[in-house]
Design brief:
Length: about 150
């Protein structure tokens, strides 16, 4: 996976040849409703997903993903308010896909990979074409004012 395409999917809106304009407008509305402070995440496991079709390779975590789960729920609430409730995922397994086509690999602990989450980005992913198009971007902002904000 190219570094510029690494991401965590919070909610999935489906596969389209052309994303419907109404869906884009609602998604942009939802993104603009999210209010949350920047936060850190940490992924401390690597391996395949289990299930009916195991395979691929992903970073997953156990301890440092509470704020990421909160962002996913916050965005879900914003999506419901924007009339997109049908797309809100009730289950969320935070992960970063590294490879899609690989034989199953057991999950193993690794040294924690951490970074600061500072923005929410709406991406139009052209599935199977290794192409991501940025549609919207919203910075996460601290609610506490700094002296420089006066």
């Amino acid at each position: 996976m190219a570094v510029g395409r690494l991401h965590v999917t919070l909610h999935w809106l489906g596969v389209y040849d052309h994303v419907p304009e109404e869906l884009l407008h609602r998604a942009m509305d939802a993104g603009g409703r999210v209010e949350m402070e920047p936060f850190g995440v940490g992924f401390d496991r690597v391996g395949s997903f289990e299930g009916p079709e195991p395979g691929g390779l992903a970073l997953t975590g156990t301890q440092e993903l509470k704020s990421l789960r909160l962002l996913q729920r916050t965005l879900g609430s914003a999506m419901k308010a924007a009339g997109m409730g049908q797309f809100v995922r009730s289950r969320f397994n935070p992960h970063v896909s590294l490879l899609y086509d690989s034989p199953p690999v057991p999950r193993v602990p690794i040294s924690t990979i951490r970074w600061q989450v500072e923005e929410l980005v709406l991406i139009d992913s052209h599935v199977g074409k290794t192409k991501h198009v940025e549609v919207g971007r919203w910075p996460l902002r601290s609610r506490q004012m700094n002296f420089s904000d006066w």
